[in-house]
Design goal:
The structure is a single chain. The protein is mostly helical and 239 residues long. The chain has one domain. 47% of the residues lie in helices and 7% in strands. The protein has nine helices and three strands; from the N terminus they run E-E-H-H-E-H-H-H-H-H-H-H. A three-stranded antiparallel beta sheet has the order 1-2-3, with helices on one face. Helix 5 packs across helix 6 and helix 5 crosses helix 7. It holds the Pfam family ELMO_CED12. This is ELMO domain-containing protein. InterPro entries: ELMO_dom, ELMO_domain-containing.
Length: 239
């Protein structure tokens, strides 16, 4: 893929003919694609087919001027990004409990402030203190990953693939950092599309309203793969 020209707020992108990949679903078919093997599970291919650009011939135009659907979904995503985690809000408390039981379905949670949270990779007894960098959407991302692609989520949580270090990265905190990284990379809070990456993501968003959450899951898998390739340890994790 490469940028060829720019006309009236649109960029034309040369792309290869797309492979025959079925459309993604965030329900039964997504769970079925979340196979038990290490490596890249099938849902990554399916998820990327959902959020990649719809190709129409040799060139695909990515327009910076938003369609009504893109504007609606972008504003909804921006709203999610601006919500701070509030430990006193009931819906935030319930989301935190939902994350626990999606992660450990057979283990009772003693409380929202508990040493149990350290098992998931939070820095202390109170996970609410770790959301400050990315807000409530980082909890939503973790919960989406846990519920939609539970097998891959559990493999990363339990460090089941590859030769692992004695001291590994803290899973939950890494998840919050990934949300923050994606928000910075996409530059969605700016009023205009200043980067090609953002323009491509807006196109993704028009194809699938869960594009941000899907991108998060893929980024988490990529991060873990790079961690293994570098033989990294806890001391190299950037909080």
């Amino acid at each position: 893929m490469g940028v060829e020209r720019n006309h009236g707020g649109c960029m034309a992108v040369r792309s290869l003919p797309p492979p025959s990949i079925p459309k993604c679903s965030h329900s039964a078919s997504a769970a079925n694609a979340d196979d038990q093997t290490c490596g890249s599970p099938r849902w990554i291919e399916k998820g990327l087919s959902c959020v990649c650009m719809k190709r129409k011939g040799t060139y695909e135009r990515i327009c910076i001027n938003l369609t009504p659907l893109q504007e609606e979904r972008l504003q909804r995503l921006k709203h999610r990004m601006n919500v701070y985690f509030d430990a006193l809000r009931r819906e935030h408390q319930e989301a935190l409990r939902a994350l626990w039981y999606a992660t450990y379905p057979n283990k009772e949670l003693s409380g929202l402030i508990s040493d149990q949270w350290k098992e998931m990779g939070w820095q202390g007894r109170d996970p609410s203190t770790d959301f400050r960098g990315a807000g409530f959407i980082s909890l939503e991302n973790l919960l989406f990953f846990a519920k939609t692609f539970s097998n891959s989520f559990q493999r990363l949580l339990n460090k089941q693939c590859g030769k692992r270090a004695t001291w590994e990265y803290p899973f939950a905190v890494a998840g919050v950092n990934i949300t923050f990284m994606i928000m910075q990379m996409l530059d969605l809070q700016s009023t205009k599309a200043r980067t090609f990456v953002r323009a491509v993501f807006i196109q993704m968003l028009s194809e699938d309203e869960w594009a941000f959450d899907l991108l998060y899951c893929v980024a988490f898998m990529v991060m873990d793969k790079q961690w293994l390739e570098r033989n990294a340890s806890y001391m190299e994790f950037n909080f």
